[in-house]
Amino acid sequence: RMEASCLELALEGERLCKAGDCRAGVSFFEAAVQVGTEDLRTLSAIYSQLGNAYFYLQEYAKALEYHHHDLTLARTIGDQLGEAKASGNLGNTLKVLGNFEEAIVCCQRHLDISRELNDKVGEARALYNLGNVYHSKGKNVANAGTHDPGDLPDDVKNALQKAAKYYEENLSIVTELGDRAAQGRAFGNLGNTHYLLGNFRSAVLAHEQRLLIAKEFGDRSAERRAYSNLGNAYIFLGEFETAAEYYRRTLQLARQLKDRAVEAQACYSLGNTYTLLQDYERAIDYHLKHLVIAQELHDKIGEGRACWSLGNAYTALGNHDQAIHFAERHLEISREVGDRSGELTARLNLSDLQMVLGLSYSTNNSMMAESHAVENSLNGGRPRGRRYSMENMELMKLTPEKVPNWN
Amino acid sequence: QPLAGGQAAELQSKVVPSKQILHSDNMEMEPETMETKSVTDYFSKLHMGSLVYSCTGKRK
């Protein structure tokens, strides 16, 4: 009686999670755990699914807890396949939490057991996970400093090269297995790894493969991702027209998919690309579109960037009134979000603009004094060259992958 | 005035867009894959317990 009800609750949890309602699924799984069961395999499956549900709900601490229970249980009952799966899930969760070393140990365990069991599918999946962990590890260290892709410290390069190696190993297995979906995923992340390594031609090749597979499946989200990543790679190849073409396709798909955040990002990329093409009117057009959506989404960081970009583009056009207007808004927003270096950038831009206009306006006296105070606090006292670029702006650090680009 | 004009030109020439912006946080990764287990997984293989069979039987 007790057993049946635990199982029934778990089955309902499975049904709900499959239907995409993880929140409700979690409630049923939790209830099943409360009721309890003598059957440790059933319990292991419940823990595993609870861990995954929490992972998809982005509650990683809870995901970690349940995948850990699952791993312990799988070992207790000597279920090797179950242990491999739990290790992989634990590894993925540790990766998201930024605990790369332990993540590697867990994913490696997933790989070792899969090989012992001669489980090709499991082996391939473990290799993909390992690639993801090394990619995140590399990106995480790289994000700590600012440099263009390809200009990397050794530890970053090592991690990224390992990631590429794992993705390629994964690709050779999934190609053999004829698993196109898995190939698509590996090509996408391999492309991003090449991109960070500065191998932009290789990145393009990989993303083109990804694009092909996305079209095969009619997967428009994946197609859009590929366009966006291709656009990024072409920027660094200096082929701005091609980049603009890909970003336009990204924008088109983002609108079709009704994803405002992604639409905003595409407009922003287009604005920057047209700036690189020195087509400032178009750049302004796209940055304004980006600004509107950023405001709509209450994205202060994005709004600040838009204002900074617009100030720049208007400066390039010699429209100093508008340039000042946006530089002032950039300053306001930087203050609001507590972005000290953004604030400094805005102040310097404003003082440059005022010098050009021969203006001194109301805030000017205090502004210059404050500007030096901020500058001193940032640079240990030595004022640097004028007109700071975005590189100097400490934008909010986003965590790897899991956080949407637009928050 | 000429001074301001010169400065304006200088200012315009300083509008260097940054590639860094584009790559800073705009790389789109593929989704993770998680391994899945199901409470019905192994019943179908060997453990055809009569108790659970009544439950899962309904779902097959």
Describe the structure.
The complex is a heterodimer of chains A (407) and B (60). Chain A is mostly helical and 407 residues long. Chain A is 79% helix and 0% strand. In chain A, helix 2 (22-35) runs antiparallel to helix 3 and helix 9 packs antiparallel against helix 10 (200-217). Chain A is elongated, with a radius of gyration of 25 Å. Chain A starts with a helix and ends in a 28-residue tail after the last helix. Chain B is mostly helical and 60 residues long. The chains are: A mainly alpha (407), B mainly alpha (60).
Note the topology.
The complex is a heterodimer of chains A (407) and B (60).
Chain A: H1 2-18, H2 22-35, H3 40-56, H4 60-76, H5 80-96, H6 100-116, H7 120-144, H8 154-177, H9 180-197, H10 200-217, H11 220-236, H12 240-256, H13 260-276, H14 280-296, H15 300-317, H16 320-337, H17 340-357, H18 364-379
Helix pairs in contact in A: 1-2, 1-3, 2-3, 3-4, 3-5, 4-5, 5-6, 5-7, 6-7, 7-8, 7-9, 8-9, 9-10, 9-11, 10-11, 11-12, 12-13, 13-14, 14-15, 15-16, 15-17, 16-17, 17-18
Chain B: H1 2-13, H2 19-24, H3 50-57
List the defining traits of the structure above.
heterodimer, A: mainly alpha, 18 helices, 79% helix, B: 60 residues, 3 helices
N- and C-termini, Cα separation of chain B? 86 Å
What is the tally of helical segments of chain B?
A: 3
Rg of chain B (C-alpha, Å): 33 Å
Portion in beta strands of chain B: under 5%
The rounded distance between the terminal residues' Cα atoms of chain A is 48 Å
The ordered H/E elements of chain A are HHHHHHHHHHHHHHHHHH
- Find the count of extended strands of chain A (DSSP E, 2+ residues): 0
Please report the two chains with the greatest interface, counting residues with C-beta closer than 8 angstroms to the partner's C-beta.
A-B, 83 and 41 residues
Secondary structure tally: strands of chain B: 0
Provide the succession of SSEs of chain B.
Answer: HHH
Beta-sheet strand percentage of chain A? under 5%
Helix percentage range of chain A: over 70%
Average of pLDDT of chain B: 63
**Residue ranges of chain A: pLDDT <50 for 5 or more in a row?**
361-407
Overall pLDDT confidence of chain A: 88
Poorly predicted parts of chain B = 19-24, 49-60
